[in-house]
Amino acid sequence: MKESTLDSLDTSASPASLDLRARAETVMARCHALDRFSEESGRLTRRYGTPALRAAQDEVAGWMIGAGMSVHRDAVGNLFGRYPASAEDAPALLIGSHLDSVSDAGRFDGPLGVICAVSAVEALHAADVRLDHAIEVAAFADEEGVRFGSAYLGSRTVTGDLGERDLALTDRDGVSFAEAIRTFGGDPDGVAASRREPADLLGYLEVHIEQGPELEAHGLPVGVVSAIVGFTRVAVEFTGHAGHAGTVPMGRRRDALVAAAAFVLAAESIAAAEPGAVATVGELTVSPGAGNVVPGAVRLSLDLRHPDDATRLRLRDQLETEARAIGAAREIGVGWRPAYDNPAVPADAAMAGRLEAAIAALGVPVHRLPSGAGHDAAALSAIVPAAMLFVRCAGGISHHPAESVAVDDIAVALGVLDRAIAGPFGS
Ligand SMILES: [Zn+2]
After folding, report:
1. Which domains does the chain have, with CATH numbers?
2. Quick check: 186 and 53 in contact, CB under 8 A?
3. Rounded to the nearest whole angstrom, what is the distance from the C-alpha of residue 164 to the centroid of ligand 1?
4. What ranges in 134-188 are assigned the alpha helix state H?
5. Which residues does residue 351 pair with via DSSP β-bridges, in sequence order?
6. Closest to 155 measured CA to CA, from 167, 171, 143
7. How far apart are the C-alpha atoms of 149 and 166, rounded to whole Å?
8. d(CA 303, CA 313)
């Protein structure tokens, strides 16, 4: 397939697009500039509520102010920059992403979307253009959920979904989310008041790295997310009988880990046989966990994803049947405790359509693809029409320092974003 490059773009429609490459270079430089705000020297780790995240927010707030935005933080410490509309009291289009990261992260997952959004407003401000609607750039303070083991604490504040149970979550040092909010300069008692009225928001657009290899395989700089896949998490337990590794004969063993191993392989083959499905066993605890003891019990995590909810639930049931069959054949007890069943979140057709029209206007082939990872857009779609633009990333690598995005691809993303945020919104 022919490679789409910046040089082949049709930029005639928008004067702001003429300097897309210069703007993309600024976006790239700013993504790099945020590297220095990390909890750890030599690697990028920026979890919710840390001084590193606060310092990154202060840096971004400076860029927002320079782009003509007024800046505020909500009760959990999400950062917002607002660029006013031509008329007061006009609703706002929300655009952005998150500034928190996983441990030893790459520099683009999250910040790219925030910084592209700032650039889009900067272009409006430089041209002295006000739109019929306000633009609000959101820099969410917790998307990855690394510190409290719960995702979207930032965007769920905006949707009003955050509750007492979330505030009581604790990190590995025993610090509650409520305490962390205070340390971060926020107010846990103000969380409910930070909920945004859907009537004040036109929708949400997010630019994000793909985190997968599909755009690269198609030779495309950007793509439109069709749906954020649903996922199932199950805690599975295999209970056998512990015994002496030297004295229990093979024929008399009830080895829980051997049953678990059979299940891990079954999860792999069942997912591999279903296009679009992925299954992962990422955690495994063996008891008693000694080199000279036959494993008596194993607890493991199953993460199962598919863009189609019915297919995912069918695979989930198939895996449960398989786990029980493996247990029955080996006289091993099987516990099956579903932890989450989150449905797939389809992109809003009208918002995704704005992105697609903008891509087509640039002369780039329009490509739709599902997101295998969760995003703030999934949370926000509960209250506003939401859509996402994916940017090609090298090798599909993410959540890793090797995360890499090309300046030319950022330029295309900016060209798309410029068009998608402008123009009238239907009611
Ligand atoms: Zn992300």
Report:
1. 6-228+345-421 (3.40.630.10), 230-342 (3.30.70.360)
2. no
3. 25
4. 153-159, 164-167, 177-183
5. none
6. 143
7. 10
8. 12
The structure's pTM equals 0.87
Q: How far is the CA of 375 from the centre of ligand 1 (A)?
A: 6
Centre of ligand 1 to C-alpha 317, Å, is 30
The answer to whether 53 touches 37, Cβ cutoff 8 Å, is yes
pLDDT bracket for residue 2 (50, 70, 90): very low
| H/E stretch holding 78 | none
Ligand 1 centroid – CA 16 distance (Å): 27
Q: What is the pLDDT of residues 142-191, one digit of tens each?
A: 999 889 978 899 999 999 999 899 999 999 899 999 999 999 999 999 99
Q: How far apart are alpha carbons 376 and 79 in whole angstroms?
A: 14
CA of 350 to the centre of ligand 1 (A): 23
pLDDT-derived band of residue 13, with 50, 70 and 90 as boundaries?
very low
The rounded distance, in Å, linking the Cα atoms of 302 and 318 is 13
3-state secondary structure of 88: coil
Q: Is the pLDDT of residue 14 over 60?
A: no
Instruction: List the shell of residues around ion ligand 1, using CB closer than 5 Å.
Output: 109-110
Query: Please, what's the b/e burial string for 298-334 (b: 16 or more CB within 10 A of its CB; e: otherwise)?
Result: bbbebbbbbbbbebbbebbeebbebbeebbeebebbb
CA 2 from centre of chain: 29
Cα 336 to ligand 1 centre (Å):
30
Is-contact 245 292, C-beta < 8 A? yes
Q: How far apart are CA 210 and CA 391, in angstroms?
A: 5
Helix (H, G, I), strand (E, B) or coil at 177: helix
Q: What one-letter code names the amino acid at 412?
A: V
C-alpha 36 – ligand 1 centre gap (Å): 19
pLDDT digits (tens, 9 = 90+) for 319-357: 999 999 999 999 999 999 988 788 999 999 999 999 999
> What spacing in Å lies between the alpha carbon of 271 and ligand 1's midpoint?
24
**Which tokens hold the place of 301?**
């995590």
**CA 392 / ligand 1 centre spacing (Å):** 14
What would the two tokens of residue 115 be? 């910084």
Q: Please tell me the distance from the alpha carbon of residue 380 to that of residue 158, in angstroms, as a whole number.
A: 8
In the predicted model, what is the mean pLDDT of residues 291-303? Answer: 97
| pLDDT at residue 251 in the model | 95
Q: What's the mean pLDDT when you consider all of the chain?
A: 94
